[in-house]
Amino acid sequence: MHSYFAMNANYKILSYILLCFFLLSATVTLSAQAELQRMQERLPQTDALRLSGKVGENNRGLLEARTELTPEERAIVNAENADRISLYRQIARNQKRVRRGSGRQRAIRIAQQARSGVWLQNAAGEWLQKP
Amino acid sequence: MPKLKRGLLPLAGASLLTIGSFTGCIHVKTDPIRIEPIYINITINHKIQRELDDIFAALDRQSAATEYIPLEEK
User: Fold this and answer.
1) Between chains, do A36 and B47 touch, taking CB under 8 Å as contact?
2) Contact list, B46 vs chain A (CB under 8 Å)
3) Global pTM?
4) Which of A35, A101, A106, B13 has CB atoms 3.0–4.6 Å from A61's, for a disulfide?
5) How large is the ipTM?
6) How many CA atoms within 13 Å lie on the side-chain side of B36?
């Protein structure tokens, strides 16, 4: 009888832990969804800025101005970077790492996938245009 | 006329010597410039890459500035 209750209590604790884990991951997913939604909405503008060479992808996984930007363009870049930083923070939290680490990992992937003409900053800090 | 020629000869010789000595002075030897290669270690964390891909894959597929490359399985 005693062991039955003990087992029941263990199950209860386990179910609480699972519930907490589920709620936490659901919160993180929902937050990520909001950022991704905003990033998707501004994709035509960020694409245009990247393809025109006005902004480049730096080695921390963020957009960086390469020429003088208009206030509207500057606002787009800032909003995009804020969402990216938020996502990198979430990933870093999941992986128990620093945010900059996941940003740098994202920069590697961006460089791999970037189309010709996009400006990229390498790990040494040099800016190169993707051939 | 021959007097003039005689007067000009040392002058021409002196100017040639001066030019010659200057030529000797401005001869500068330059060593070939060697561009040393820069080695940078890039550590790819596959666990983070996987999680990044889960989040950004849809966006990368839609973007005109990127060409989505499926992540290699490790």
Assistant:
1) no
2) none
3) 0.67
4) A106
5) 0.73
6) 3
